[in-house]
Structure to design on (265 residues):
């Protein structure tokens, strides 16, 4: 006997398969209708798996405040930054680097790179921010309540130049390697990894492509995905499907704000 949620998921997946092939928008709409249930399900699972959250955090707070004071900003919350920082720290004794997909201005990269070597991939590294996203000023203003409208971003720099300036200031420059390219294609070039952090395209198909990266993660490593929330139903759907496909190989999910992660057994 299927539970109510399982029935809904079955319908959802059935419709999604049909619509996904040529119309991402319609399928996204279906996910929006049903994603609350999936979200609730994964959140309930996540609640059973509380991460160790009371870790000594003076170093993290110092780093976070330093970046804030220098107007180095990104698209993750303080809680998410803290989770990335401690997850990366937990991988310290592991030889394999961390792979980040989606660096933007290099903010999340800094928290990953404090204790580990990070290989980060972004398809807009060679673009200037204004060209990559003409609405960025408005976007930043909304996201950061005007306070960050004058974030330390210089229009003439490419995203990679902005990243490098940020990484030098934060003292993590030597720990970061970059690839400018498409996530899907870059996967083949990647070494084995202790952790993969995904924060690039947010549609179902792109997140689904994460499987190529998942296969790189060593035992006891971590896979973390950002924007697991109702605003990006494609992420919820793809993460949920990922979870169903790989359940036996995963511990978790764990969740803080809209960062969801699993430990690889
Ligand atoms: C949401 S931003 C990343 C924010 C960053 N993690 C932070 O918190 O500061 C997404 C980034 O992913 C990059 N991106 C989007 N689609 C991509 C793709 N298919 N391959 C590689 N990078 C991609 C974009 O250029 C953008 O810089």
């Amino acid at each position: 006997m299927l539970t109510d949620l399982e029935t809904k998921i079955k319908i959802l997946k059935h419709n999604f398969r049909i619509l996904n092939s040529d119309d991402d928008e319609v399928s996204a709409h279906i996910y929006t209708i049903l994603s609350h249930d999936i979200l609730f399900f994964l959140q309930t699972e996540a609640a059973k798996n509380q991460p160790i959250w009371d870790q000594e955090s003076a170093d993290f707070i110092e780093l976070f405040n330093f970046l804030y004071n220098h107007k180095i900003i990104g698209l993750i919350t303080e809680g998410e930054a803290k989770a990335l920082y401690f997850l990366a720290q937990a991988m310290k004794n592991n030889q394999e680097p961390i792979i980040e997909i989606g660096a933007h201005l290099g903010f999340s990269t800094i928290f990953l790179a404090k204790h580990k070597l990070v290989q980060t991939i972004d398809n807009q590294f060679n673009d200037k921010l204004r060209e990559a996203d003409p609405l960025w000023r408005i976007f930043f203003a909304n996201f950061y309540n005007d306070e960050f409208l004058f974030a330390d971003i210089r229009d003439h720099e490419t995203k990679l130049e902005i990243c490098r300036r940020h990484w030098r200031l934060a003292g993590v420059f030597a720990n970061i390697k970059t690839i400018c390219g498409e996530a899907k294609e870059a996967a083949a070039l990647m070494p084995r990894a202790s952790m993969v952090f995904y924060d690039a395209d947010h549609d179902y198909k792109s997140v689904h492509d994460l499987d190529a990266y998942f296969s790189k993660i060593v035992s006891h490593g971590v896979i973390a995905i950002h924007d697991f929330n109702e605003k990006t139903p494609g992420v919820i759907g793809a993460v949920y499907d990922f979870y169903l496909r790989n359940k036996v190989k995963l511990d978790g999910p764990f969740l803080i704000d809209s960062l969801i992660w699993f430990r690889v057994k």
